[in-house]
Every structure is written in structure tokens, then in C-alpha cells.
Amino acid sequence: MTPDDRRYSREHEWAKLEGSEVVVGITDFAQAQLGDVVYVELPKVGDQVTQMKEMGVIESVKTASDLFSPVSGEVVAVNEAVVSEPQLVNESPYERGWLIRVRPDNPDELRQLLSAAEYEALIAEGDSE
Fold first, then answer.
1. Lower CB density within 10 Å: C or N end of the chain?
2. Exposure class string for 38-70: b at 16+ Cβ within 10 A, else e
3. Residue 120: in which H helix or E strand, if any?
């Protein structure tokens, strides 16, 4: 089930607006495709991220994939628990397995992302990147 309280990228990241910050993670579909996550490399607090540009790397026992930021802005928090326990991404991709928090430059960028229904249609079509 894809939570409908956030927006989704075609690259399988999610973005959830909480107050003036956007919480970012990867979707349940993405973690399932990756398999057991063993390493996560994330930007540092204070770094700038750009919408749909690489912001880090996630590695599983099967593959390594780039992570893309769904919004542009300043990183204000990094989930250190995920860095030390990468399996949290598998166990709880929408809650404890979040990756970063961003102070967005332009909150309207969220509108460019997919709704939960649009994202589910994307993965159902197999039209994923």
C-alpha cells in the first residue's frame, strides 16, 4: 500500500511535507526491488540538493543504485539510524527508514511529483526507470 500523504518520483523516492520541511525516503517498491540494503550514503546536513539530481547511493546485496532528491533545498537532517542500520530501509521504508529532511527552496516542486495513485499506476505498468 502506497501512503497517500506524500508525493513520489519516477525514480522511486517519496517526499512528505512536514511543516516547513520535506522528509525524503525510498518507496516500499524500491526497497523490495533492491533486496537487503547493506549500505546507504547520504548528503550531509547543510548540503544543497537539487530536484531529480543525485543525492546519494544505496547498496544492497544485489546492486547499487543512485538516490535522487525529489525536491531542491538545504539538507537539515540526516537519518543517522539508517546509516548505521541500513536494514531500516527494508523494514520501515515510510517511517523509521526515512533518509533526509530538506528545507525546500520551492515547495511547489512537490506538485511536479506523482500522487500515490499515479505512482501505483507507474509501477503496475512496469514503466519504472
1. N
2. eebebbeeeeebebbeebbebbbeeeebebbbb
3. helix 116-125
Residue written as grid cell 539508517: 82
What is the residue type of 14? W
Strand partners, 72: none
CA distance 54 to 32: 21
pLDDT digits (tens, 9 = 90+) for 21-69: 999 999 999 999 999 999 999 999 999 999 999 999 999 999 999 999 9
Q: Compute the distance between CA of residue 82 and CA of residue 32 in angstroms, rounded to an integer.
A: 16
Q: Which residues pair with 78 in a beta bridge?
A: 100
CA distance 27 to 90: 10
Secondary structure class of 69 (helix, strand, coil): coil
